[in-house]
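Priority: medium. Attachment 1 of 2:
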């Protein structure tokens, strides 16, 4: 079970979870102004709990299709036989050059999808005709505090309204037919680095929404708001606050016994930034809870402790937010091993007994089956190679860690998985017919090591670890070895046997979310700019379509007028892309986020994209500084800049490539942007409280040295030559 084949690797390939972002490259122009007259039914049937529970095939009315979040559709017109006839019915330009992570929502012939910076589009689900657009004009200064691109995972629908949550922490209700604002409420303390990227879920008129920010220093919570008024109904904190302020409830008092030291100093973390599920019979809401803040437990909770409810699935009463049970997959979390990954509810026969289970494949690399009534651990096995634990103890449900796993005070060494996880936010699916869970799985080693002289600085990252060892090596041989260790696949997993049924190896990690159907198909987009269908039983790839740009979002399907449609948003982005998209190119062309909708017999084509070359830009002259300054610049860059501007200062193109930026060659402009916050309104964080003048100037020297390294676009492409 334990794989140690990475021991030869000297440094780790770093795949980070999240980071502040800068202003986007220029956006593709688009004309969406003239709203063609689209015939809509005069009266919209409001979305109710019954409508979501009925889950009829004409719609996709909640994030995971049903409250069980199985992302499996009973539709079968498109099937293993007919899929060869699948073609593009229409596409819609989402006016984005960054990551699109949204799951579209479909109701009554309309499809709602979100783009970069939370712009919502409403389209005719049959034709793609534009109906309305809503731009919440997010505060990009707040958004710049986010970790992982200007992304979000889509809207919710309830009554006659579309509910959207924004990266600057707002929850907004829109009229579903007109896109006009009903109400707009702030769900966060804007003095802290909270952001929202997750999609809201709605249970009996209560909108459930969490947030992110545990890389930068926040205390996690999930809230319920009244769908009709936007009024706050309850809030459940996932980690305890300072005892001196009094605990909110007995649950927090209980949780506090598992923490030590001044754990509240950097918020503690535990953000609920993505996954939720709901069981209407048990009337339990399940939330996936994130990593600690700081990551490094020796700083966060120096005398140890499990640190509840970090890296846990927590069951709550949706009416009150009252705690019911929890299962913690990574006690004493110290690696950014969040349990925010997709959770699926199903009934499985295990040892001759039907069990109501919840399933999760969190970042830590183990696949968990847990009793969803009680939180009792049932089984777990690793679904990718892992080096941090040998197995999960069957009696206690706790991981048996390897000696090297807790890195504090030890020599830097690579570990699997890294902070981007064996599985990240990209949704999986469960097909009750095959009994298999389809996981967008990945491998990426990382070197965890203590930060030198850690000090909490609000405005920067606060992981308590040093990312310098996570930067790719510059010598070609080691670079290639590390590149080879970074993998991605579509993995079909048997949750009863806890073993793989099949897997389909992709060219690299960070592929799209998954949809499965009664037609015996599994749909998934890929980093190398394709959208494909696989045989659910065998894993054979039966069909694929070139999407020009990479796909990270999850597909959906619906049926209107007897025709089955499959829809997916394309748009290459998110944390892996920001960090490594430049140095590990995938063949994804210039980013152009679109909604792509397919049906049988259709043959529409995508407009050709212009390929903007970075190589034509001039290389700046080296600064007259010593090697120590450049080495210091690398260290500061790795710990503050790499997660947006890219490894080796070679960006993915989602944010400006600093090597060729006019700001880099102008000391005064650099100072104004980095330390003065002059581009804060565009999303570039102000590092004035985080970096010294010497640090900022050392980064500039390092970036210019990288520009002169000879490792250019052609170099990275030559190391990542595509096979087909
Ligand atoms: Ca994280």
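Attachment 2 of 2:
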């Amino acid at each position: 079970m334990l794989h140690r084949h990475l021991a030869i690797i000297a440094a780790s390939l770093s795949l980070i979870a999240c980071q502040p972002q800068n202003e986007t490259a220029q956006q593709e122009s688009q004309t969406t102004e003239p709203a063609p007259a689209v015939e809509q039914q005069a009266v919209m049937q409001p979305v109710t709990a019954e409508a979501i529970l009925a889950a009829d095939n004409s719609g996709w009315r909640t994030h995971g299709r049903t409250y069980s979040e199985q992302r499996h559709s009973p539709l079968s017109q498109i099937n293993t036989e007919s899929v060869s006839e699948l073609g593009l019915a229409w596409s819609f330009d989402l006016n984005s050059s960054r990551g699109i992570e949204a799951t579209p929502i479909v109701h009554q012939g309309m499809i709602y999808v979100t783009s970069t910076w939370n712009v919502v589009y409403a389209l005719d689900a049959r034709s793609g005709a534009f109906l309305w657009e809503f731009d919440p004009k997010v505060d990009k200064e707040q958004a710049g505090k986010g970790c992982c691109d200007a992304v979000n995972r889509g809207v919710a629908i309830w009554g006659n309204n579309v509910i959207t949550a924004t990266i600057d922490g707002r929850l907004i209700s829109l009229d579903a037919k007109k896109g006009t604002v009903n109400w707009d409420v702030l769900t966060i303390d804007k003095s802290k680095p909270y952001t929202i990227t997750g999609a809201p879920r709605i249970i009996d008129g209560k909108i459930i929404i969490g947030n992110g920010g545990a890389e930068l220093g926040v205390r996690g919570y999930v809230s319920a708001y009244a769908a009709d008024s936007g009024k706050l109904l309850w809030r459940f904190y996932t980690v305890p606050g300072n005892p001196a302020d009094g605990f909110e409830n007995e649950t927090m008092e209980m949780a506090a016994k598992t923490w030590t030291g001044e754990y509240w100093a950097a918020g503690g973390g535990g953000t609920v930034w993505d996954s939720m599920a709901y069981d209407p019979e048990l009337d339990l809401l399940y939330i996936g809870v994130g990593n600690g803040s700081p990551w490094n437990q020796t700083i966060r909770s120096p005398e140890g402790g499990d640190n509840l409810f970090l890296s846990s699935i927590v069951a709550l009463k949706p009416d009150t937010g009252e705690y019911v049970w929890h299962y913690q997959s990574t006690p004493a979390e110290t690696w950014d091993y969040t349990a925010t990954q997709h959770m699926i509810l199903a009934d499985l026969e295990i040892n001759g007994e039907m069990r109501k289970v919840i399933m999760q494949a969190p970042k830590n690399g183990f696949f968990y089956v847990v009793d969803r009534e009680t939180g009792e651990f049932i089984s777990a096995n690793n679904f990718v190679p892992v080096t941090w634990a040998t197995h999960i103890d069957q009696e206690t449900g706790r991981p048996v860690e390897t000696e090297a796993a807790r890195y504090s005070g030890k020599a830097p060494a690579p570990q699997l998985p890294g902070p981007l996880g064996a599985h990240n936010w990209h949704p999986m699916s469960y097909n009750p017919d095959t009994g298999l869970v389809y996981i967008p799985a990945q491998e990426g080693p990382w070197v965890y090591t203590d930060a030198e002289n850690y000090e909490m600085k609000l405005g920067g990252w606060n992981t308590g670890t040093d990312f310098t060892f996570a930067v790719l090596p510059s010598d070609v041989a080691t670079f290639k070895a590390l590149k080879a260790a970074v993998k991605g696949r579509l993995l079909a997993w048997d949750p009863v046997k806890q073993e793989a049924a099949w897997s389909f190896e992709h060219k690299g990690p960070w592929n799209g979310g998954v949809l499965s159907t009664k037609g015996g198909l599994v749909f998934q987009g890929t980093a190398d700019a394709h959208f494909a269908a696989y045989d659910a039983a065998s894993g054979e790839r039966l069909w694929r379509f070139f999407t020009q740009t990479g796909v990270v979002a999850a597909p959906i399907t619906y049926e209107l007028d007897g025709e089955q449609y499959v829809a997916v948003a394309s748009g290459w982005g998110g944390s892996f892309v920001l960090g490594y998209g430049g140095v590990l190119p995938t063949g994804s062309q210039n980013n152009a986020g679109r909604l792509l909708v397919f049906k049988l017999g259709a043959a529409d084509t995508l407009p050709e994209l212009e390929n903007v070359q970075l190589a034509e830009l001039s290389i700046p002259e080296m600064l007259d500084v010593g090697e120590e300054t450049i080495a210091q610049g690398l260290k500061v860059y790795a710990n503050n800049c790499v997660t947006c501007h890219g490894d080796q200062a070679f960006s993915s193109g989602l944010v400006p490539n600093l090597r060729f930026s006019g700001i880099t060659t102008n000391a005064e402009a650099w100072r104004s942007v980095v330390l003065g916050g002059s581009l804060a309104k565009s999303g570039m964080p102000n590092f004035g409280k985080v970096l010294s003048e010497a640090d900022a100037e050392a980064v500039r020297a390092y970036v210019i040295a990288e520009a002169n390294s000879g490792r250019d676009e052609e170099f990275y492409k030559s190391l990542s030559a595509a096979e087909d």
